[in-house]
Specification:
With 168 residues, the protein is mainly alpha-helical. 76% of the residues lie in helices and 0% in strands.
Length: 168
């Protein structure tokens, strides 16, 4: 019952957040423009929402709940670890960037976040790691086949990118 309740809440949050991530990636040129189309009345990324919902339904229908729980766990932990690492690195590489939220004691919190997420990921089964690597490989294929050439950063001159990141 706990797994069902937990996965249900994750699916609902994913259904709310993932289409908006696709929307933002599409606006940045990392995904095709179809993902940034918004509904005329509701002003939501409706095509990305339909795609996300369809994929969630297919995966829920094809895979056992335990496997889905492991995949959600490793994906979420990897995302958290990357965010912790990114926050840490940006404090040194771009200290002047606008930060609406600041991490207290980042020099301790960020490395501990990466460590504990990695530790929790370490305890997941090997086949979950294999699935994560396949999923990441698919992401790299999408990035190098489409996103890298269509990215707004790729179309901007190098000097404009350096100065505008400081302004943000």
């Amino acid at each position: 019952m706990g797994a069902i309740a937990g996965l249900s809440s994750v699916i609902l949050v994913m259904m709310l957040g993932q289409p908006r991530i696709f929307y933002a990636m599409s606006k940045d040129g990392l995904l095709p423009p179809v993902f940034s189309r918004v509904h005329a009345r509701f002003r939501t990324p409706w095509l990305a929402t339909i795609l996300t919902g369809t994929l969630a339904m297919v995966m829920a229908g094809l895979f056992p709940i335990g496997l889905l729980g492991e995949l959600v766990s490793i994906g979420t932990l990897l995302a958290f670890a990357i965010v912790c690492g990114g926050v840490f690195v940006l404090r040194f590489t771009d200290p002047g960037i606008h930060r609406p939220f600041r991490v207290p004691a980042f020099w301790l919190v960020c490395p501990l976040g990466v460590f504990f997420c990695g530790y929790l990921m370490w305890g997941l089964p090997r086949d979950t790691w294999a699935r994560l690597l396949v999923w990441m490989a698919l992401g790299f294929v999408i990035y190098f086949a489409y996103s890298r050439r269509h990215s707004r950063l790729a179309r901007r001159p190098a000097s404009a990118g350096a100065s505008s990141s400081r302004a943000l």
